[in-house]
């Protein structure tokens, strides 16, 4: 008798992996706005600013403004991860366990590519203009030099001052610091004790391991930020929720197939698609530090 995986198992497995990606494995999931994509290239429209002008006389003619319109392009990539299953029923039933190794490992794979695509968009070139053919780099004015030091509270103050100059207020806008383990340890051991002292924190980050906040900034840990100089110089990323837009597919897709060359055992393949683009350079500050 041929044993096949029931569709209900597949649907449950797909839901389990998607929930794990959203809740655990993708650290940046939910931070930035997402739109469902319909093709390989996805364009996000940008609207320029308005200027309020003084009205100096009665019945003054209305001044019509035409703010600039531009667009940014995200290139959507497809990622896949597959696993083979023995046809034995006891092994197939692992599919409905949300904590099974299969669900956890596949979710981690898709979560990592999501985070990597977002981080690459933050620090890389943003494709702009009507066709997305012009590359815009993150300008030097949005970068804090390493200063031959680690990640310090003083650098965070400097980065936030940069935001203030761009009329970005952490008190009214969600702001996040994406940083690796080396940078987190630097902040914990900073001589100012801003992130560890009860005088500044409502929680107990040292005793309970919770991630503290700094001047309203949410700290998010990620080991996927590429070094500026491998092995010696890293970067942390201060961003707002509006800094990046993400194009995604309808969700995780699972496909199954019997493999006649492997005694008709079952192959399960998972696919996700994601693309991201930086929307405004002013909403990002890159902080370099040594380690």
How large a portion of the residues is in β-strands, by DSSP E?
25-35%
Give the overall average pLDDT.
83
Strand-pairing-aware structural class: alpha+beta
Strand order of the largest sheet: 7-15-11-8-10-9
What are the SSEs and their pairings?
Blueprint: H1 7-25, E1 33-36, E2 41-47, E3 69-75, E4 77-85, H2 89-92, H3 101-123, E5 126-128, E6 134-136, E7 143-144, H4 153-165, E8 175-179, H5 181-188, H6 205-208, E9 213-214, E10 217-221, E11 233-240, E12 244-248, E13 253-259, E14 265-278, E15 284-290
Parallel strand pairs: 1-12, 7-15, 8-10
Antiparallel strand pairs: 2-3, 3-5, 4-14, 5-6, 8-11, 9-10, 11-15, 12-14, 13-14
Helix pairs in contact: 1-3
Describe what is shown at a glance:
This protein is of the alpha+beta class and 291 residues long. The chain has helices spanning 7-25, 89-92, 101-123, 153-165, 181-188, 205-208, and strands spanning 33-36, 41-47, 69-75, 77-85, 126-128, 134-136, 143-144, 175-179, 213-214, 217-221, 233-240, 244-248, 253-259, 265-278, 284-290. The longest helix has 23 residues, at 101-123.
Q: Can you describe this structure?
A:
There is one protein chain. With 291 residues, the protein is an alpha+beta fold. The relative contact order is 0.23. The model has no long low-confidence stretch (mean pLDDT 83). The chain has helices at residues 7-25, 89-92, 101-123, 153-165, 181-188, 205-208; strands at residues 33-36, 41-47, 69-75, 77-85, 126-128, 134-136, 143-144, 175-179, 213-214, 217-221, 233-240, 244-248, 253-259, 265-278, 284-290. It is globular. The protein has a six-stranded mixed beta sheet with strand order 7-15-11-8-10-9. Strands 1, 4, 12, 13 and 14 form a five-stranded mixed beta sheet that branches. Helix 1 (7-25) crosses helix 3. The longest helix has 23 residues, at 101-123. The protein contains six helices and 15 strands. The chain folds into two domains: 7-46 and 69-132 and 250-277, Major capsid protein gp5 fold; 139-244 and 280-290, hypothetical protein PF0899 domain (hypothetical protein PF0899 fold, 2-Layer Sandwich).
